[in-house]
User: Which sequence fits this backbone?
């Protein structure tokens, strides 16, 4: 399975942008880049995903390198509620029965200071 | 809104008991997952199911089995509970759209304590 590498932890100040990096040098052409986050005492929640182009939604933006070997999750203005563990995951895009698997790494613990 | 419901939030069982953890999703998702989460070890996949009666082992299937008799329900079974199975258990589901895997939705988790 293709793997991702993320920093163990990062700190941010409230209301400042946060850039969470992820390396995935062994990504294949059919892998989508997914981001999830897990708030304290909750199950993970989906944040955003993309294939090649940068993506925006109401929660965050995803910037994908041209060679697709790295990506960055961008929170435009961090709030205290964004303090969570953020997971970057590669997921096979095309369904093929057992290829729907979803493997988590250790993620990045984001702390937000007031 | 998609809802993934786990039958219990907290559960205490005795060593050697057979334990059933139930998960139900209401959006006709093909894929369903069971994870356990332990401090310092992150989320580890126990089993994955991509269709009714279809299952695949994840990273740590030993001591567990699963059942998926209906599309909406995925059960995790601890055949003989042991103290090292004390953990937070998380269920998730995801949809296939135009033959593509989409985002997963998680339940709130079941904190199981085996004494």
Assistant:
């Amino acid at each position: 399975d293709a793997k991702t590498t993320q920093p163990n932890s990062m700190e941010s100040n409230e209301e400042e942008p946060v850039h969470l990096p992820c390396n995935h040098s062994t990504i294949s052409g059919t892998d989508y880049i997914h981001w999830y986050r897990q708030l304290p005492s909750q199950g993970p929640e989906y944040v955003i995903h993309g294939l090649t182009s940068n993506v925006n939604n109401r929660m965050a933006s995803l910037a994908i390198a041209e060679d697709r070997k790295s990506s960055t999750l961008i929170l435009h203005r961090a709030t205290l509620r964004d303090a969570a563990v953020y997971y970057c995951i590669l997921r096979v895009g095309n369904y093929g029965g057992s290829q729907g698997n979803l493997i988590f790494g250790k993620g990045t613990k984001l702390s937000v200071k007031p | 809104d998609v809802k993934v419901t786990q039958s219990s939030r907290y559960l205490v069982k005795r060593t050697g008991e057979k334990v059933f953890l139930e998960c139900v999703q209401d959006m006709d998702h093909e894929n369903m997952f069971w994870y356990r989460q332990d401090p310092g070890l992150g989320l580890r996949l126990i089993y994955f199911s991509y269709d009714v009666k279809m299952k695949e082992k994840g990273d740590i299937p030993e001591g567990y089995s699963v059942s998926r008799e209906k599309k909406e329900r995925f059960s995790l079974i601890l055949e003989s509970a042991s103290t090292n199975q004390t953990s937070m258990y998380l269920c998730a589901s995801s949809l296939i759209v135009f033959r593509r895997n989409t985002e997963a939705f998680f339940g709130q988790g079941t904190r199981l304590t085996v004494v």
Observations:
- DSSP finds no helices and eleven strands in chain B.
